[in-house]
């Protein structure tokens, strides 16, 4: 003990400076390694070692490592790597510009559509409604220029010019229905005129499509116009309350043009069938389109979860389930919710009304906030209609993030979550809307601990370098206080163990 005391009294300020610098350096290396391990594997290395190796040594139960996450059948690593990220899709349920978007702007003074979104729509119109043979028909030439106009009034004026040249110009009626009509009833009238003209032009194109490649391109364009008009007519019927008529029109359209599944007409059909509460028909549609080889969407994943939740939600109680455990049907419902939340984690906040909705954009980003807004805008009423469905969602959706591997480059049931969705959603959604971002996992305790240790030791090194004498006095006082209980205990042990006469002699 005397040697330790003498040793501490002989230490110089250089020793304490070297000690603090070394401690800061070592703790900094540990912090960097912990951070790298967490970013790569999603767990703390120190915590993982303590649980896996140290706990069994001290008698604790060894936790078996979780089984590797199984991906959906058919979704191998190659397909994930080749899958494009942040691809923007046309919103299957996009609103009418004149009858809905413009009315919102008139009432609130806020622009519901971004320039980027409208520019994408202009590109879609030029792709769907124009072709190389437009020069043969003057009205189509005028409409080709109309789709490029940025000013809505200029587009409407060009549509009327096209109708003056040809009273059967279907695309002119389409433009007027989308942008000039201020009510759904007026839009439906324009679309009926477009349907009459479009069917006539489509039949002519069918008769001569094999004559040349130009005629084939013209047939594709006329087919696109006809499908677009029929779909919008079905959406008008749905908005005006004629649900069964809308369902029939959508089914006929899908049978007539089965190869145009990329237009996602089945999502319009799912929403209409949910409004009719025809859940058996909804399940039949899902069985066809919720396939491993087809791209998923929030509408498919969350509708499948809704149907499974419907079977158990009315009698579901978290307290009861925690006592007796989950039944098979409840497990299926919870797994379906986890699957849906993993595909698009932004939807639950809108369904649970934790975030306010805005009008959906004309284009959506799958798995992004824009898709979540578009889905919740039309499907929130269907979740509310089923008693207990939102309660089951509220109790289970956050558990998904404890199951999904971390970081975002990993996945469980789907390909990895794209990290570029936030930037793309900011381009699609209006500025007054707060874009939802992917939930981040909290940093482990040991990352905070090593970061604090590194900072504290670095601060001590700086203070020792600036005030060496003062810090040496502080260090000696600290170590003296720290060792005094140990010294007292050792003296007490010596008093008890040494023989009495010798002890008395040493005292004298």
Automatic annotation (TrEMBL):
Stretches that traverse the bilayer: 15-36, 445-464, 470-490
Topology with respect to the bilayer: Multi-pass membrane protein
Keywords in alphabetical order: Membrane, Transmembrane, Transmembrane helix
One Pfam assignment: ST7
CDD domains: ST7 (cd11557)
Assigned GO CC terms: membrane
InterPro entries according to UniProt: ST7 (IPR007311), TPR-like_helical_dom_sf (IPR011990)
Subcellular location(s) per record: Membrane
Principal place of residence: membrane
Name listed for the protein in its UniProt record: Suppressor of tumorigenicity 7 protein-like
Organism lineage string: Eukaryota, Metazoa, Chordata, Craniata, Vertebrata
